[in-house]
Amino acid sequence: MNEEMTVVVNGEERQIDGSSTALDLLHSLGLDSRTVVVEVNREIVRRPALENTQLRDGDQIELVHFVGGG
Amino acid sequence: MANAAGAPADGNLTVGGHEFRSRLMVGTGKYADNATMVDAIGASGAEVVTVAVRRIDLDRTKDEGILYHLDPNKFFLLANTAGCYSAEDAIRYARLAREAGFNEFIKLEVIGDEETLLPDVEGLLEASRTLVADGFKVMAYTNDDLITALRLEDAGCSAVMPLASPIGSGLGLINPYNIRIIKRRLSVPVIVDAGVGTASDACITMEQGVDGILMNTALAAAEDPIAMGHAMKRAVEAGRLAFLAGRMPQREIAVPSSPTTGMLS
After folding, report:
1. ipTM of the complex
2. Which position among B30, B74, B107, B137 bears the catalytic label?
3. Known catalytic residue: B107?
């Protein structure tokens, strides 16, 4: 078991495994990578890159999708 | 063009090289429930539906994303940048929306004031130029101001979307003259966005000769959104046909419709 780290996901601090990738984070939250767009420290992480994107302590992560709007 | 039985021929709306089967575009916000939204949109006959980009609710206290309810194979998803108050924010949201992977179109909003939700045209022009250079097909929500509309066209926008009246106001088309002159002077499609409240508003707007209308609250906040969807479909079609038909001249004195000769003595 790796040490945990703290990242900020959609404005809230979360403790996650220190070796987590962006894809690991989505899976741990029960999210389908096909319907989520991921931004780490204001940079978009394209879907094919999610599994190779190593998260770091203190990362600011935004997980967005489409909702109703006009 | 016209024949004895049919309506005048009218081409489909084409924006940024993409042909759409309806001149009515609708939003997906503010419905009481998703089933009503789906049925109201179905009744409207709209192909283009707008969506917003927002954080996923990680606590799952709210509903699933909109794609759970609207089939992206059936509808053309037009993402917006609603809620953005700077060019920088709008560009960020547009790029996130494109990454969702449906298309390169964006309904660009850069809002300048919370009370009126009127556009910040300086930010809008800046964001338009950046996004066009970045390969987006920009449909820009703007004031009913000719000069801004011309500048947005020069910036490379695929469509210019002047308001009929403020977002969600339902006040209808406040300045038909401004909309007509924008339509007359621009080459790109002009799609009126925001302010339409009921079917007559939609019809009058289309009678100005614009290429289409985008509406949300007029359906979502109607007492019966599904019935209003049917009404709006017919109103947009009727207004378009009336424009193509060419209306009679207006006069301030009566002109009899029946013969003035042959009256009994």
Report:
1. 0.92
2. B107
3. yes
